[in-house]
Amino acid sequence: MRHYGLIGKHLSHSFSKNFFTAKFANEEIDADYSLIELEDISTIDSIIAERELSGFNVTIPYKESIIPYLDELSPEAEAVGAVNCVVIKGGRKIGHNTDITGIEATIEWLDKSGALILGTGGASKAVQYVCKKHNIPFSIVSRDDKRGDYTYDTLTAEVIANHKLIINATPVGMSPLVEEAPALPYDAITDKHCVFDLVYNPAKSMLLSRAEEQGATTMNGMLMLQTQAIASWHTWQRAERELTEQTLVN
């Protein structure tokens, strides 16, 4: 049996285990998937050895801090500066970013005239990469005025009006803190806006509820979750095929 999992700090909200467990059962794949909570990413090598992992996903808060513990990065992961999928190949840990695929699948359905990206972490970096790739102009909102174009305190109705796509790349509003929402001037959101929340649990975050009250089109992070998960699986499978082919050649 092959072993996979999700590395993170607080994972009670995650649907990843259920998703992969159902996939493995439906397709009769001899594998399992675990939620692996770590207090410190420096223990990753011992976790890989102890659980005999063939690959794993990475979530908050380790998408960036795991990079020094990897042996190699895919070109996309290196360009983004964040990793959410790791392949164990011949004892080497190779970082990938399949969040890109999930974000692309979602924004295909949303307004692309200009994006306001909330947050500056690993998920935000993947969103920024996709926006650049698809020539979508964007501005960044951060709690730190040195890391973004705006802070939440400086957001005005005019800023909201000039960004018809709002993307929440922070964990604000994620279970169990479902009553929280990013500090936006919600009255400035209109029926011309699209709001994409990477949060998928709850299915309708407070951000999306408040945006819908203003008439905005909304999308949660479920399509992104499913698409990046399938992309992760294909990445792991491709690595296994390459190892098998290499073994046969040798």
Q: Could you name the CATH homologous superfamily of the largest domain?
A: NAD(P)-binding Rossmann-like Domain
CATH fold title of the largest domain? Rossmann fold
- End-to-end Cα distance, whole Å, is 24 Å
Task: State the name of the first-level CATH class of the largest domain.
Answer: Alpha Beta
The count of strands amounts to 11
Strand order of the largest sheet: 2-1-3-5-6-4
Can you name the CATH architecture of the largest domain? 3-Layer(aba) Sandwich
Report the sheet-strand fraction.
15-25%
- Write down the secondary-structure element order: EHEHEEHEEHEHEHEEHEH
Please indicate the count of domains: 2
For the residues shown, what is the average pLDDT?
Answer: 95
Supply the number of helical segments. 8
User: Which radius of gyration do the C-alpha atoms yield?
Assistant: 19 Å
Largest sheet: 6 strands, mixed
Topology:
Elements: E1 2-8, H1 16-26, E2 31-37, H2 44-51, E3 53-58, E4 72-73, H3 75-80, E5 85-89, E6 92-96, H4 99-107, E7 115-118, H5 122-133, E8 138-141, H6 157-161, E9 165-168, E10 194-197, H7 206-213, E11 217-219, H8 222-249
Helix pairs in contact: 4-5, 4-8
Structural summary, described in words:
By secondary structure, the chain is an alpha/beta fold. It has two domains: 2-97, Leucine Dehydrogenase, chain A, domain 1 (Rossmann fold, 3-Layer(aba) Sandwich); 101-223, Rossmann fold, CATH 3.40.50.720. The protein is built from eight helices and eleven strands. It has helices at residues 16-26, 44-51, 75-80, 99-107, 122-133, 157-161, 206-213, 222-249; strands spanning 2-8, 31-37, 53-58, 72-73, 85-89, 92-96, 115-118, 138-141, 165-168, 194-197, 217-219. The chain has a six-stranded mixed β-sheet, with helices on both faces. Strands 8-7-9-10-11 form a five-stranded parallel β-sheet, with helices on both faces. Strand 5 and strand 6 (92-96) form a beta hairpin. Helix 4 (99-107) crosses helix 5 and helix 4 (99-107) crosses helix 8.
